[in-house]
């Protein structure tokens, strides 16, 4: 699943999810704000959705829900901190190597322009890196 926004100049990929991960707009589900992001399936997949009212009722159905929700949001926050750190402190090559190490399957399943956008680089930069670096 690709999470992205279309600006007048280009599409910006925020995240590409692999199997077993959640995809959400936290501001939308937690603060009732209109979503900023689009979600696009890039491969055949099963996608489960939940309505806001059902989400709000999970605490009544699952006694540990509020603790699990807190852990989930903390994990999302930590994950975003790591992404920001990578974008601000790593070179394009380091970001490429890091993503390849984390999720090598993405490089066979996802169009390169989406990966480049997610890593904060132009597709041409990613192409040059792929030619130069052999894993």
From TrEMBL:
Name this polypeptide is given: Crp/Fnr family transcriptional regulator
């Amino acid at each position: 699943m690709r999470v992205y926004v279309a600006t007048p100049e280009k599409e910006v990929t925020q995240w590409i999810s692999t199997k077993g991960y959640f995809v959400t707009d936290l501001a939308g589900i937690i603060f009732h704000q209109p979503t900023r992001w689009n979600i696009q399936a890039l491969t055949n997949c099963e996608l489960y959705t939940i309505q806001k009212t059902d989400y709000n009722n999970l605490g009544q159905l699952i006694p540990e829900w509020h603790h699990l929700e807190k852990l989930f949001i903390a994990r999302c926050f930590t994950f975003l901190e790591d992404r920001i750190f990578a974008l601000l402190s790593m070179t394009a090559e380091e970001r490429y190597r890091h993503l390849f190490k984390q999720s090598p399957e993405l490089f066979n399943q996802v169009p390169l322009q989406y990966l480049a956008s997610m890593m904060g680089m132009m597709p041409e930069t990613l192409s040059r890196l792929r030619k130069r670096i052999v894993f």
